[in-house]
Amino acid sequence: MSNFRLCCGVVLVCVSGVLSACAGSTPPPNPLGEARIELRQLGATRAGYPVKQVIAGISEPWGIAMLPDGSLLITEKAGGLLRYYDNILERITGLPEVAVVGQGGLLDILVHGEGDNNPWIYLAYSIAGKEGYTTRVSRLQLGGNRLGNSQVLFTAEPFYRQSRHFGSRLHINPEGYLYITVGDRGNRTAAQDLRSEEHTSELQSQ
After folding, report:
1. Are the CB atoms for 127 and 133 separated by under 8 Å?
2. What is the mean pLDDT of residues 168-174?
3. Which of 51-55, 170-174, 182-186, 187-191 has the lowest mean pLDDT?
4. Considering the entire predicted model, what is its pTM?
5. From CA 85, how far away is CA 103, in angstroms rounded?
């Protein structure tokens, strides 16, 4: 089904998204309207590094990844995916259905396939089921500003009623292994049980 190996590593801490990038100076009008882009000096951190605001108006940015052409893909927790290039924001369509509940939503993103015209886009997000919520990872191919050819790679089991600690960081190492962090999804006791077969405290490979 794919040319990568899958590993699932479980962590107990849910890491929030980080957004930082570089941009030009004077931005042209933006097609998203409210997501106005501006670059201005915000001040310096305690460590002495300057902090610059690059993009304004994005709703809860969680993950960020760079495409081969240098443009950025930015996930919004509420389920949106944005493409940022040359001071312009555009929305990506064709995303999988996401359960936006509690700390869940559209979370991390990873691009795989440098130099490809249609690279694979890996997404981590929360989904809803009859028994509650869980974390899922899928990959889709990007063509223009639309995703297609969706493939579900991993779904954490079981589903829980709680709506927090979905984890969701993605990484592919040089050997081609895909690593996925999965949180305890609100069940800390299960995460501490090393004998548990639930996806809260184990490392899997496929």
Report:
1. yes
2. 88
3. 187-191
4. 0.71
5. 28
Give the Cα separation of 14 and 109 in Å (integer): 15
Distances (CA, A) of 124 to 25, 28, 43, 183: 33, 32, 33, 12
Mean pLDDT of 176-196: 73
Q: Judge residue 130's burial from the number of C-beta atoms within 10 Å of its C-beta, 0-12 exposed, 13-18 middle, 19 or more buried.
A: exposed
The answer to whether the CB of 134 falls within 8 A of the CB of 185 is yes
Q: What is the pLDDT of residues 82-127, one digit of tens each?
A: 999 888 899 999 999 998 887 888 999 999 986 667 889 999 998 8
Collapsing DSSP to helix, strand or coil, 185 comes out as coil
Compute CA distances 76 → 46, 70, 91, 186, whole Å. 28, 19, 11, 22
Exposed, middle or buried by CB within 10 Å (0-12, 13-18, 19+), for 43?
Answer: exposed
Helix, strand or coil, per DSSP, at residue 122: strand
Joined tokens for residue 29: 């009008």
